[in-house]
Amino acid sequence: MDGASVTSCGGITGHPTRDKDAHGTVPSSTMQGAEEGVLASLTRSIADRVDRIEIPWNRYGVDPYGVSKKHLVAGMTALSLLYKHYFSVKVHGIENVPRRGRAMLVGNHSGGVAIDGAMVLASMLLEMDPPRLAQGMIEKFINKIPLASLMANRTGQFTGLPEHAIRLLEDERLLMVFPEGARGTAKLYKERYSLVDFGTGFMRLALKTHAPIIPFAFLGGGDAVPTIANAYTLGKLFGVPYIPITPYLLALPLPVNLEIVYGEPMVLSGTGSEDDEVVAEYVFEVKAQIAEMMDRGRKKREGLLAPGKA
After folding, report:
1. Helix, strand or coil for residue 90?
2. Is residue 253 part of a domain?
3. 139 and 105, same domain (yes or no)
4. Is 134 helix (H, G, I), strand (E, B) or coil?
5. Containing domain of residue 20, as a range?
6. Which pLDDT tens digit goes with each residue over 98-119?
7. Helix 201-209, helix 276-301: angle, nearest 10
8. Rg value, the chain, Cα
9. Is 2 exposed, middle or buried (0-12, 13-18, 19+ CB in 10 A)?
10. Range list of β-strands (E), 153-200
11. Hey, what long-range contacts does 299-302 have (CB within 8 A, 24 or more apart)?
């Protein structure tokens, strides 16, 4: 091919000698062009997967909830870089997530900041076939942050109001729930494989809408953001519940390998109007399942499980 080199994607990068300057280095303009080409290719790939999400888009690429294809592509392109290259996320049990229809992804919170939710969203788009859009119930303080509020709403993440969740499930959507709430992300490094009390609202929602629960364990979040303390007073000044403090002060995630384990669907019978004791028992079952998945995942990550027991 006249001395031209070929990239792994089949694109021709040019002559290996002519592309270098007098000092034998590749000009920055050539490197920048290559990086822009990779980003453009990734964006096209994400746009193709967004197009395949089976929700009713209008001619402007917006769904009935205001979810925007344009914002989804932008957000998921950034997340995919973190998902594939920074955290190298591994997913197990993706076959347990229904390809279509209503369902609730229910899992543990961790990590000081919500990297768990972001990676779960990415896994649904990147690993599912056809891709699915998971929609989470976010904390109300997000709406006070202008850019974050816009991106959250345009990518399908809404304030955790029961009426929003019911409508999503009745429209056969996929709902992501963290029953621990903000208390879950506030766990310290030494508590990273523990669970705090679960709220019960998610269970009444599942029973009322007859939605199967897909329990999942998110592993590695506490290692990515090793929180040693939480600054609650400082958090209030910024309009957030708290600010995690790490050994290196800032809560910037470390490039730790993360894992998501999706368990088998749990179908519980009821109407959502059961006595508190009944609902609490159902919640205990889900929490126990997630705890077991977390424990097995921890032992596997620490090399404590015998071969074939993972």
Report:
1. strand
2. yes
3. yes
4. strand
5. 12-51
6. 999 999 999 999 878 889 999 9
7. 110
8. 22
9. exposed
10. 158-159, 174-177
11. 301/219, 301/220, 301/259
